[in-house]
Each structure stands twice: as structure tokens, then as C-alpha cells.
Design brief:
Layout (H helix, E strand, L loop, with lengths): L1 E4 L2 E4 L6 H7 L23 E4 L5 E3 L10 E3 L3 H17 L14 H8 L23 E3 L9 H9 L5 E4 L6 E4 L15 H5 L5 E3 H5 L8 E6 L8 E7 L2 E7 L15 H5 L14 E4 L2 E4 L2 H19 L6 E3 L5 H15 L4 E3 L4
Parallel strand pairs: 1-5, 15-16
Antiparallel strand pairs: 1-2, 3-4, 3-5, 6-9, 7-8, 10-11, 11-12, 13-14
């Protein structure tokens, strides 16, 4: 179907929202409570638009498209509402961008910049909430929470851990873990999905903070998680060729085997890449001692050893053990090598033992 957004004809699909159609067409509409993985929300009102023939402003993240719809996203009325929303959020929280770990990737900061807000025009007195650093890998700063509900939706409906929820009412409303206990004492499994979807600095990873690395200083590289055969896609962030932290790869997340999510190992278990005692070069034994060698020399040594054993004792004298920490494709290639190249069926898998 066709809809019109800011005078531009846009293709839309049945079931899409106006926000989805606009973003697919490259039209920017801010949204703080909406995330593609958590779905419709309609809480923050930052994505409001005008729709021809309808009264009032509509939340584009919850508004289904219809044939011939005419939408405006950039009018003085819309700008006025968005400025008020952002100023209220900035005023009631403690958003210090200078020291915030989310500086440079904060969606509230981006929205304030695009609206030309240097400082909030309102001042709301609030009592500071202590930091929750009880979790091994996640820091919670409730004073920066904007009550968007993304983390709750991700925990409840995405990974279905059902740890996070809203508690209390009115100005006392906040996100809690279980029955309002510190995260480190809750049933949280440390998957970090709440950090992944948080639009501000209310939930951040401890790793980059401890290493004094701002998110915009690190460079992501897409890799496959080494911990199991699922093939989860990870953005591995590095600075100066050193590991910083990991986040789930979210581009085309519907097509990824992990759909933009990670477990505790995939998010927090990759520090070994920079471990000082990690082997970084192949080792071969010469004169009774292990010494560094090139890959060509090491592989030639292995090939010669296989050949010698096969010629002296036959292919069944060789056995192979594969790993659950590699991809299914790598396990298949290893199986083909054992059966077709070496000529033995002596191959097993660590997950079966």
C-alpha cells in the first residue's frame, strides 16, 4: 500500500506501524520507548505525528498504516510536544552526559541535540537513588531511567526471564528486580538483554566502564560466538586492538540464529581473548621442548604425523573428537575430514560424552 509522509510517497506493508514504514523509508522519527525487538509501547509520546483527518497527535509506534494515509512528522506543533517531553525527562532524572557511560550512544541525548535543547527549561527536585552495582556485569542507575519499559519487555517477553517489572505508582514508579531486591541478589541470569535495549544510561555494562572506554571509542567487529554450535552473532568491540566488551549483533536481527540476543557467556565470557597466558602462536616440539612455529610448519608437522600413523597402523588407529564450541559447519567439515580424507569412522562429539 501507499502512504504519504511529509509529502513523500512511501511503500508500506499490512501490519506495519507508521514508525516502521517511516524508518524503512529513511525518514527519522524519534522514539524512546520503541525498539524493534520489544514492539509497540506508546509510553513516551516522543514519536507523535499528525495524521490528516484525525484529531490530536498520534503515537506512530502504535499506529497501523492504512491505504492513502497522510502523515506529517515535522511541524511546529510536533516539535513543541517533543521538546516538552525531552525537557521533562531531562529535568526529573540525573542525566549528566559528561560522566555517563552511554554518552555518544544515548537516544535521549540524540533527541535533545536534534531538538536544539541545551539544558532543560524545567527543574524537578528528586531524591537521588543509590547505584546498584551488586551485579557482576551490569550497573543500574535508576536516576537515569526514563520508564520507557524496554528492559521490562525484553526480560518478560524476549528472553522470558521475568526478572524486571514496574513497581509502585505515580512519581514513585520504578523498575525493580523480582520483589525489589538488588540485581545481584535476584534471579537475573546476566544475559544483558536489558542493557542491549536500554536507550539511556540507566543500564550499562561494567566492562567498558572499568576499562575507561567510551562506547564511541570502540570499534565493532561481527563474529560468531565460540561457546556453542548455535552460531550467535556478536559485535565484538575493541579499542587499540584490545577487547573491550560484547553486544549482540542487531542488524537484520530477525535473520540471526540468536535474534539479537546473547546468553551470559556470549556477553561476558570473552575476556580470554586478551588473557596473558593464552597461546597466540602454534607450538611444535623440538629437542624435547615446545617452541613457536609458523602455521605452515605446524600444519605440515600434523599432516606428516597423520600420514605416518595411517601408513604404519591403518586409519582406524586415529580417532577424532569434535567440540560443541564450534559451529555445525565446522563440525561437519571435521567429520568429512575424518571419514573421507583419513578413512575412519572413529569420530565422536564432546556433547555426547
Amino acid at each position: 500500500m501507499k502512504i504519504t509522509i511529509d509529502g513523500r510517497s512511501v511503500d508500506a506493508q499490512p501490519g506495519q506501524t507508521v514508525l516502521d514504514a517511516a524508518r524503512a523509508a529513511g525518514i527519522w522519527i524519534p522514539a524512546l520507548c520503541y525498539h524493534p525487538k520489544t514492539g509497540k509501547a506508546g509510553r513516551c509520546r516522543a514519536c507523535v505525528v499528525e495524521v490528516e483527518g484525525q484529531r490530536g497527535l498520534k503515537e506512530s509506534c502504535a499506529l497501523p498504516v492504512r491505504e492513502g494515509m497522510v502523515v506529517r512528522t515535522d511541524t511546529p506543533r510536533i516539535h513543541s510536544v517533543r521538546r516538552m517531553i525531552v525537557e521533562l525527562l531531562l529535568s526529573e532524572g540525573h542525566h549528566n552526559c559528561i560522566s555517563c557511560q552511554a554518552n555518544g550512544i544515548c537516544e535521549l541525548q540524540d533527541m535533545a541535540y536534534h531538538l536544539g535543547i541545551d539544558r532543560p527549561g524545567l527543574r524537578i527536585d528528586s531524591h537521588p537513588t543509590p547505584l546498584d552495582d551488586s551485579s557482576p556485569g551490569i550497573l543500574r542507575e535508576s536516576d537515569k531511567c526514563i520508564h520507557c519499559g524496554r528492559c521490562v519487555a525484553a526480560c518478560q517477553n524476549g528472553v522470558v526471564n521475568q526478572v524486571l517489572a514496574f513497581a509502585h505508582r505515580g512519581s514513585h514508579a520504578r523498575v525493580v528486580c523480582d520483589d525489589d531486591v538488588p540485581m545481584g541478589q535476584s534471579s537475573c541470569v546476566q544475559c544483558g538483554e536489558c542493557v542491549q535495549v536500554c536507550p539511556v544510561g540507566a543500564l550499562t555494562l561494567k566492562q567498558p566502564r572499568e576499562r575507561k572506554i567510551r562506547p564511541y571509542e570502540a570499534r565493532p567487529t561481527k563474529v560468531t560466538c565460540p561457546y556453542c554450535g548455535v552460531g550467535c552473532q556478536i559485535d565484538l568491540y575493541t579499542k587499540d586492538n584490545r577487547y573491550a566488551y560484547a553486544m549482540a549483533h542487531e542488524q537484520d536481527w530477525q535473520e540471526q540464529p540468536n535474534q539479537g540476543m546473547l546468553c551470559v557467556k556470549g556477553r561476558f565470557g570473552l575476556d580470554f581473548v586478551d588473557a596473558p597466558d593464552r597461546l597466540r602462536h602454534p607450538l611444535v616440539r623440538k629437542n624435547g621442548e615446545l617452541v613457536e612455529a609458523s602455521w605452515d610448519e605446524a600444519l605440515d608437522r600434523v599432516a606428516a604425523g597423520f600420514k605416518e600413523i595411517k601408513e604404519k597402523h591403518g586409519p582406524d588407529a586415529i580417532g577424532f573428537l569434535t567440540s560443541a564450541k564450534v559451529t555445525n559447519e565446522e563440525n561437519y567439515a571435521f567429520s568429512r575430514f575424518a571419514r573421507a580424507v583419513i578413512g575412519t569412522n572413529n569420530i565422536d562429539h564432546c556433547a555426547r560424552l
